[in-house]
Structure formats: C-alpha cells, structure tokens
Specification:
The chain has about 300 residues and is α/β, with parallel strands linked by helices. It has a single domain (about 1-290), classed as Alpha/Beta hydrolase fold, catalytic domain (Rossmann fold). The chain has nine helices and nine strands. The protein has a nine-stranded mixed sheet with strand order 1-2-3-5-4-6-7-8-9, with helices on both faces. Strand 8 (about 225-230), helix 8 (about 240-250) and strand 9 form a beta-alpha-beta unit. The two termini are about 25 Å apart. About 45% of the residues are buried.
C-alpha cells in the first residue's frame, strides 16, 4: 500500500480503466499503463501531462528497482497531428530497447501533444524570428515534471535516471541539461533541433543561425554528459547543421559526444523510432550507458 500512497502524494494517477486491486505488485500495475501528472504538482490548475510506463521483461516484483529512461518525442507538422499523437507503446523499438536493457521506460507527451493539456506552447515566433531557446526551456519544464513523476512510481532506483529525446524532444533535452534533477545522470539526443519543416527540401531549417545561438546558450549552463547522434541522411537537420549545433553547444561549455550514424533507409531523421533503427544505434547507446557511474 505504501507505494500507492507515494504515487498519490506525487499526484500520479493511473489512467487505464479496470485497474487491478491495491494488492497487485507495483511492477505489474505500471507495465504498459498510462499515468497522468501535473506540470506543477501543488497547482491544481496547471496542465496535465500523459505518459506511458513500461518495465523490463521478467521483472521480479518487490525485489528490484530499475533505472529510469524518460523518452521524449518529436513534433509532427500540423497541430491536428500533434493532438492525435499517443505515447509510444511498450512494443515500439525505443521502448523495447530500453526495457530489454533493464530500464523503466517512460514515454512522456509534452504540453499540446496527444492527451496532454496546455496547448502548443512550444511554438514561439514565426520562421523569420523563432525563439528557439524559449521553446526548448518550455519543453524542459515538461521533462522535469516527467522525471519527478518517474521517481514517484515506486519501481525506480533512487538516483538513477537518463533523459532521451528525438528531434524537438531532443532539443528540449538539451535545454534540460542546464537545470537537470541531480538524480539524472546523462542525456541522449537524436537529431535535436527545431524549425525544420514537415517535408523539407535541403536547407529548410528556419533561421539556423538562431538555432545555433540557442544551442550555445544551452551549452553555457549544461551539466550533464550528452550522447548526440545524427544519421548521415537526415534531411530535417542535415549533418552540417547538426555538427554546427553540437560545436556551438560544446564550445559554450557543454559536454557532448557527437556520433554520425550511417544512412538509414530513405530518411535518417526516423532512425530513433523506426523499426531497424535500434540495430544501428543500440550498441553505441549501450556503450555510453555502461560508462555511467552506478546509481
């Protein structure tokens, strides 16, 4: 019962219908279910975010806690596509990879995406003058709420979490590195950025100079090690842009290792979540995680 009380106090509520009785072990109760959490726990008027929680296969109830991997999505183009999104399923390639490697994987929907309330708050500025830094910081606030909620689940090790993000989710992760929870050990980003158009021709990023400036701003305050991955055929953020963002981030003080991945199918921007992608990035991510200090 204590783990349920802790979850309630953290303002987490199971959103799945037909939940099992309280006597069920916490691992089984969370696997694959949706949880909801407030952006600001003590403010009942703050937006509600939705996330899916998946646990490692064969987990032993009551005996073992696991590290947390908070996974952050990218952004489709039209607003109607954003509201139709759902948290990644436990069978999706990224969630399956992290749970297979012993992580509780938590797929967070940021404000304005899927069932999360709050509206499209990350969309700041027209293409001629976007506020990329502010957009990232807004996403970072949602990540902070997700991390707090993850630790309140009752199945996560006390000081052992990573944050992972792709595209705009990776951009929010970069912003988060500047004021991360001390229980978070590292960040992994796949083609982080903002301002790419939905179906881009080459060089279609809005004001890449401002995007680079914002990456440097994030690097100034960053205090997490970052693994930064980009596919050679990513047309949303082509390699020259991706490498420039990385150089700006590290040049300002950020700690990030850049890895160029081989071309992936027809569009490298999909390498994180698409079937077959983990076969290309899994060993690199696994090596990075193995070097982190124990939780």
């Amino acid at each position: 019962m204590r783990w349920r009380l802790a979850a309630v106090l953290a303002v987490l509520a199971l959103a799945a219908c037909g939940a099992e009785p309280a006597r069920q072990d916490p691992i089984a109760a969370h696997d694959g279910t949706l949880v909801s959490l407030r952006l600001t726990p003590d403010d009942l008027t703050s937006p509600i975010l939705v996330a899916r929680v998946c646990v490692p296969p064969g987990a032993v109830p009551w005996r073992v806690r696991f590290p947390l991997a908070l996974i952050n999505h990218g952004s489709p183009g039209p607003d109607e596509d954003r509201t139709a999104m759902q948290p990644a399923s436990c069978d999706s390639p990224p969630m399956r990879w992290f749970t297979a490697h012993g992580y509780v994987a938590m797929a967070l929907m940021r404000r304005g995406f899927g069932g999360s309330s709050g509206g499209p708050v990350e969309n700041l500025g027209a293409c001629v003058a976007p506020d990329y830094a502010a957009s990232g910081e807004i996403g970072a606030q949602d990540i902070a709420a997700g991390v707090r909620a993850g630790f309140a689940l009752g199945v996560v090790q006390p000081k052992d979490a990573i944050v992972v993000g792709q595209s705009t989710g990776g951009w929010a992760v970069l912003a988060y590195t500047g004021h991360a929870d001390p229980r978070v050990k590292a960040a992994i980003v796949f083609a982080p950025g903002r301002g790419a158009r939905a179906y881009p021709p080459p060089d279609s990023v809005c004001r890449p100079d401002l995007l680079t400036d914002a990456a440097a701003q994030f690097g100034t305050h960053a205090h997490l090690p970052v693994l930064w991955l980009a596919a050679a055929n990513d047309s949303f953020f082509p390699l020259p842009i991706a490498e420039g963002l990385h150089d700006a981030f590290t040049g300002a003080g950020g700690d990030a290792s850049f890895v160029k991945l081989d071309p992936f199918m027809e569009e490298g921007h999909a390498i994180f979540a698409a079937p077959g992608g983990a076969e290309m990035w899994g060993a690199i991510v696994g090596k990075f995680l193995s070097r982190l200090p124990p939780g």
